[in-house]
Specification:
- The chain is mostly helical and 260 residues long.
- It has 2 domains: 5-152, no CATH class; 161-259, no CATH class.
- Helix content is 64%, strand content 4%.
- It is built from 11 helices and 4 strands.
- A two-stranded antiparallel ribbon has the order 1-2.
- Strand 1 and strand 2 form a beta hairpin.
- Helix 8 (170-187) runs antiparallel to helix 11 (240-255).
- The protein is globular.
- The mean pLDDT is 88.
C-alpha cells in the first residue's frame, strides 16, 4: 500500500501503462489491479475516487452514454461534458468491465472499435478511452489533493440522488408542453401495435407524474422516462413521433443536466 501521494502516482502510472498495453486475455486482470491501486491509495485519494464513483451509475452509462450500433465497431460513446461526471461515467464503465470474464473487454470493445483480431479491437478501447481517462483522472487527483470533500455520510449514490423540480420555471413549462405534444402525436400514429402504443403512452404518463413532484429521484427518471424517449427518438427519427420525443428529451436535459 503506498505510504504517500508520490508512491501512489508511481504505482498508478505503472499499472495504467500495463492496462494500456494489455492483451485481450489479461485486460480484465490488469484492470482489477488498476482499481486495487485506487482503492489502496492514501485516504484523501481513495476517498475522492470513491466519491467520484457515486456520481454516475452503470445504469446511467448504459442508458445515456453507450449507443450500440448495428455491426462491429459501429457503436458510439457520448461522454458527459462535465469533467467530474465524465470521470465518473468512465470509472463506471471500467468498473463494470473489471467484473467481466477474461474476454469481456474485447467483446465489449468490438461493438465500438474495429480490428483484425481481439487485441486490435481491444486497443481501440485502451488507446482511445482508457488512456485518455487514466491521464485525466491523474491530473484531477493531483489538482484536488488538498481540496476537502463533503463528509461521507452526505454522499449520495447516483441511483439515489434526488433533484428539485422548479415548477414555476420556463423550462419546466416547456417540458410539460412537449410531453403533452408527444402524447397527442402518439394518439394519431399507426407506427405501433395496440399493445406497444398502450405501454409507451403509460410510460410517458408515468414520467409526467414524476415531474409533478417538487423533487424526483434520478434513478426513477433514468429507468422509466429516459429509455422510452431515446427509443422513440432513435427508432422513429424523422417522423412526428421521433421529433416530438427528441424535443421532450432535449427539454428534460436542459431542466435536469445530470440525466446525461
Amino acid at each position: 500500500m503506498p505510504a504517500n501521494a508520490d508512491q501512489f502516482f508511481d504505482e498508478y502510472d505503472d499499472v495504467s501503462e500495463r492496462v494500456n498495453r494489455s492483451h485481450h486475455r489479461d485486460f480484465t486482470t490488469l484492470l482489477r489491479r488498476w482499481f486495487a491501486c485506487l482503492e489502496e491509495a492514501p485516504k484523501p485519494i481513495s476517498d475522492r475516487v470513491r466519491w467520484l464513483e457515486t456520481l454516475v451509475s452503470w445504469n446511467e452509462v448504459e442508458t445515456n452514454v453507450l449507443k450500440p450500433g448495428s455491426g462491429m465497431g459501429s457503436g458510439q460513446m457520448d461522454w458527459p461534458e462535465d469533467r467530474e461526471r465524465r470521470l465518473s461515467a468512465r470509472l463506471a464503465l471500467f468498473r463494470h468491465l473489471s467484473r467481466e470474464q477474461e474476454d469481456g473487454g474485447w467483446r465489449f470493445a468490438s461493438g465500438y472499435f474495429s480490428g483484425r483480431n481481439p487485441d486490435a479491437v481491444l486497443s481501440g478501447l485502451t488507446e482511445r478511452v482508457f488512456d485518455d481517462h487514466s491521464s485525466e483522472l491523474r491530473r484531477y487527483i493531483q489538482r484536488n489533493l488538498d481540496v476537502p470533500l463533503i463528509s461521507e455520510d452526505q454522499w449520495a449514490p447516483a441511483a439515489d440522488r434526488i433533484v428539485s423540480i422548479k415548477h414555476n420555471s420556463d423550462i419546466y413549462q416547456q417540458v410539460i408542453e412537449a410531453a403533452e405534444e408527444l402524447k397527442a402525436t402518439l394518439v394519431g400514429t399507426n407506427l405501433f401495435d395496440p399493445e406497444t402504443s398502450e405501454r409507451v403512452e403509460s410510460e410517458i404518463s408515468a414520467g409526467q407524474t414524476l415531474l409533478k413532484s417538487r423533487t424526483v429521484r434520478l434513478a426513477a427518471l433514468t429507468a422509466l422516462f429516459v429509455p422510452t424517449l431515446r427509443w422513440l427518438a432513435d427508432a422513429f427519427a424523422g417522423t412526428a413521433v421521433g421529433m416530438a420525443a427528441q424535443t421532450l428529451f432535449e427539454h428534460l436535459i436542459a431542466m435536469i443536466p445530470s440525466l446525461v
